[in-house]
Amino acid sequence: MKIAITGARGLFGYGLTEVFSARHSVTDLGHQDADITRPEELRAVFTKIGPDVVIHPAAIPDLDICEADPDRAFLVNVTGTRNVADAARDVGAAVAYISTDAVFDGKKRTPYTESDPTLPVTVYGRTKLLAEGIVREAAEYWVFRVSVLFGPGKANFVEKGLNKIAAGEEWIVAADQLGSATYTLDAAEKIREVVEARRHGLYHLANQGACTRLELARRAAELARLDAGRVVGKPSREMGRRAVRLEYAVMEMRALQQAGFAPPRPWQDALEEYIRTLQLPARKD
Length: 285
Ligand SMILES: NC(=O)c1ccc[n+]([C@@H]2O[C@H](COP(=O)([O-])OP(=O)(O)OC[C@H]3O[C@@H](n4cnc5c(N)ncnc54)[C@H](OP(=O)(O)O)[C@@H]3O)[C@@H](O)[C@H]2O)c1
Known about the structure:
single chain; binds NADP nicotinamide-adenine-dinucleotide phosphate; 3-stranded mixed beta sheet; 285 residues; Rossmann fold; alpha/beta; 6-stranded parallel beta sheet
């Protein structure tokens, strides 16, 4: 298949490009190659590539940036997705959209399924939900809701925190956000399977098992043989964040299982593999 990937220099874009390139003809579109807020430019790029599928992770994923600048968040996350969906339709391509657990309100205490009602409580979550709606207007689409991402290609929550500890600093993380965690390479593999099988629809997609940010950070420090005592848990409200964080965002992968796909391995195993690949600076003990 011919695959075009938006936001391909981003964290998930990198993982998707790695995985899809092994079996398909991939055009990895960075921000410079295709600005999703410029519909004519985007249409010209898609026309040249002639993709069968456009995978669309490009977005402003930072909750606090979105909260501070809702117009920009709307322009990139919503209008940008409208442009991607329209240009894809015009060249006969289906869209696989990367969404988020932030479409929920975080009030539930059992895992969210794909049929649970959405009620985003942040600008980011609202823009992502609107974008899901746009993608779902097409007859053939995929929406993959992922959660906290870690993986190669771009510094992320885990790598940045480990670098702090290696530099002798504290890594302060939220102790009260329970959710799922997603290794980009595992999620990209699963997306590849689902896309190759042409099983369209809405899917929750993360590594198995729930964890708080604190548990994820401590385990990462242990696996990296760094001082896990430097990981300090705090209540989210004390972290001075502009956007509300969800207390509970665990996702159940019901649609994936119902469609006959095995969910990705437990987050602990994925984290172990990821940490093995990381080049961390020497410890300052
Ligand atoms: N990170 C997470 O923990 C997380 C959790 C749940 C869901 N998600 C979703 O997963 C997707 C990927 O997230 P990520 O962490 O990989 O984000 P990322 O690393 O910030 O990658 C997003 C990419 O989109 C590009 N982009 C931004 N504005 C653009 C525009 N106008 N035109 C074209 N490209 C543009 C960015 O390029 P520049 O940097 O050059 O602007 C960046 O390379 C997003 O849709 C996000 O909502 C992420």
